[in-house]
């Protein structure tokens, strides 16, 4: 039997005996008997006090400690350790139940802390993605988008290396490095890669390259001397109809491309892709507003703005500038005899000759119908004549027989050339256009198929 139970029973027996003795003494007049009765009452009171003390020691104190323990739990401090020794029986089971409750609350607090940390990390990731999206939307050049994508990928994902490539069949070279990190890493002097050897370019699908000791993982590894001990993840996407971009990312050795990492990388790449597509569409819209739909050359609407700029530059830096005006001989006859499709073919063929003959700094415009204007910056009249002679030769070498049946003559060009010069008093754009038009008129009157240079009229 537990000690506290024994004491309680002993105290109760003592009280009973004292009470019985006191009752037996009642009714007697002997003072001694009364003294005994008073003593018995005192002993009974002492027993009662002892009983209360024992109850407080073995019942109230543990209950108080349990209350303090539960108060700490209610205040959000389930981690406070309190060892409560309770009497056996219901009180001990109460303590054990409270202990289990604290353990559950402690586990719940730990899970809540982990969930809070995870939520904070994901919130930061979303904030950074939003910041990246806003940054990309405010960028005006594709090169800046590539550099920004490279920066965010390496800082937010802990990449060891990242390379951004573009594949454009119309560019030279066709595959170019647009951005890379580390920036101080050794970059090959002559970067060459066969697009057919890159599975991401060929299949246009993302792919993970594990560090499994394979002799060849990707063509980029060998072309850029990338370490095969680092796991790589390639994400391709397209911009427009022709340009392909590949983002090649490497993690430090020992770190895997988990599903979360791949999804985050894909989200960054998709955001950059949206920005690049927007810039591409904007550039295409601007190009279409400035170019002729049939020939691809600049249209008359953009001619005045671009030529005014070239005239201003020629005047500021005092360098020569030549202007050429030309049209196709008997173009109307071809249209009437063979239809407008044949005439359109002639115009497109001439535009192709312009593109392969002129320099990148030269400007070519479709003035209207079969009439064209060409601006040759930093070019004198003698050099301009050489340029237009090459253009005439290129156009004369075009074979039109496969596209235009029964064409009775090879199409020719009549060309007028004028130079911006103080000697001829041709300085403004309007004067320059008028001088070139006059030279073209002289070429037409000279039985066509020739080049004439503007000369000011002689005073009578």
Structure at a glance:
This protein has 3 domains: 1-137; 142-288, GAF domain (Beta-Lactamase, 2-Layer Sandwich); 300-453, 2-Layer Sandwich (Alpha-Beta Plaits), CATH 3.30.70. Helices cover 55% and strands 14% of the residues.
Q: Record the strand order, biggest sheet.
A: 2-1-5-4-3
Largest sheet: 5 strands, antiparallel
Helix- and strand-based class? alpha+beta
What is the arithmetic mean of pLDDT?
82
How many domains? The number is 3
Low-pLDDT runs? none
Strand content: 5-15%
Q: Which sequence of SSEs, written as H and E, runs from N to C?
A: HHHHEEHEHEEHHEHHEEHEHE
Portion in helices? 40-55%
Number of strands: 10
Q: Which CATH top level class of the largest domain fits? A: Alpha Beta
> CATH H level of the largest domain: which superfamily?
Reverse transcriptase/Diguanylate cyclase domain
